[in-house]
Amino acid sequence: MKEKNSPSAVVSETNSPEANHSSIEEGVQRHWQGVVKRRSFLKGLGIAGATLSAGALLGSEGNAQATRSPGKLSKGDAALLRFAAAAELIEADLWQQYNELGGVQGGNPAFIAALSNLDGDMPQYIADNTDDELSHAAFLNAYLISKGEEPVDLDAFRNLPSSQATGAKSIGRLTNLLKLNVDLSWYTRYRSAKNPDFGVKFKGPFTIENQPAIPLNDNDTPPNQLQPVPPASPQEARMQAIANTAGFHFAFIEQGGASLYPTLAFKATDPEVLRILVSIGGVEIDHFGLWHDKAGNAVNAPLAGVTDPETGLTFPNLNNPATELTQTNLILPEPCEFISKNLPQCSVIRPAVTQNGGAVATIKAFTDDLLFLGQSPAFFSLVKRLAVEADSVRRGF
Ligand SMILES: [Fe+2]
User: Fold this and answer.
1) d(CA 132, ligand 1 centre) in Å
2) Under a CB-based contact definition with an 8 Å cutoff, are residues 94 and 175 in contact?
3) Are 337 and 224 in contact (CB under 8 A)?
């Protein structure tokens, strides 16, 4: 049996107001306090257009149940699905970039080889993950339309630059993968018996900052170079570090989806909307588990120790020494605190409360990741509004 987490990986721990739900009434009250806090938080993000009034939020919430009619979605359920559609369009955009270069039919042989050093099936998994996200986005928008609701269209914001490397299409993008800060706290979080929904904060086993996750151009990383293990030349090391970063970024993105969908599902009123959110959310969790396993191969022998000659990022060997919080094959979630510290520990997705894993938290995490680097104020305004509307929904009865 695994030991409990050491305190070294826990940045801080406080008593979360959401940790002990003693009654529905108290839970609702705390939710609304959280909405007000998140509004302040959004303004602190520097996201333009954080102008939704508390009255507007309350109005949206108040209408969530009142406007429901047979065959139609409540405003609340529509808001949940609209944010999910936006998140899936964002996911699909970044996965398409990975797929063009490193998928099973991708166009950059050296990137494919470097990804394959993590696992020979990586290119196939990248292609399939891309298909999944495209299907999620298409389904959610089609479902919204089928219910007479507005779909989500982010096409006006596909203006970010593509990679110039062989394989990448020269088209506008929603998301940036050319320089990322990859939050690795999930790696430690799922190995710990602590739960962020109880106020615990985690730090990752190492840091990835300002690092590309796709090759930038052919001068930087020649598309037909070999990718031996360990890399022999600086350019091979550069490409391997980029592929390793991608491996960790895949898991970062999908663990976000794994937490987002439970928070959305908890608010759904219509059983069919609940079915959609639970069913898509399950696939996000499946993705996360897969990528968690593959990322570990970048920080284990024989691949561990790669250093990017441009950025200085080094991928350490997390099995030397192996600890409960770093050992690479401890990928299945450790049982942790859940609902109440008075109950037995339980192996669950975490975080799973709105404040930590909801729509606003997802947009903040993607922003901190630099995924939206270069995006317009109008883009931030739109995704922020969709996020606040989703987080503000309360389940009807
Ligand atoms: Fe998805």
Assistant:
1) 6
2) yes
3) no
Taking residues 361-381, report their average pLDDT: 98
Hey, which residues does 322 pair with through a beta bridge?
A: 319
Give yes or no for residue 263 having a pLDDT over 70.
yes
Block residue for tokens 């450790």: 334
392 in Cβ contact with 263 (< 8 Å): no
The one-letter amino acid code at 312 reads: G
Does the pTM surpass 0.90? The reply is no
Rg (CA), the chain: 21
Distance CA 287, CA 359 (A): 19
Position 152 pLDDT exceeds 60: yes
Buried b (16+ CB within 10 A) or exposed e, 237-264: bbbbbbbbbbbbbbbbbbbbbbbbbbbb
* Paired strand residues for 182: 208
**What DSSP designation does 97 have?**
H
Backbone angles phi, psi at 338, to 5 degrees: -155, 130
Report the separation in Å between the CA atom of 94 and the middle of ligand 1, taken as the mean of its atom positions: 11
Ligand 1 centroid to Cα of residue 114, in Å, is 25
178 CA to centre of ligand 1 in angstroms = 22
- Look-up of token digits 């609304």: 32
- Measured CA to CA, the distance from residue 261 to residue 145 in angstroms comes to 21
Question: How many angstroms does the Cα of residue 137 sit away from the middle of ligand 1?
Answer: 7
Query: Which single residue is written with the structure tokens 């109440």?
Result: 340
Contact 257, 229 (CB under 8 A): no
30 C-alpha vs ligand 1 centroid, how far in Å? 29
Would you give the end-to-end CA distance of the chain in angstroms? 42
d(CA 280, ligand 1 centre) in Å: 7
Sign of CA dihedral 272, 273, 278, 284: positive
Cα 99 to averaged position of ligand 1 atoms, centre (Å): 15
Q: What is the pLDDT of residues 192-225, one digit of tens each?
A: 999 999 999 999 999 999 999 999 999 999 999 9
Check if the beta carbon of residue 214 is closer than 8 Å to that of residue 190.
no
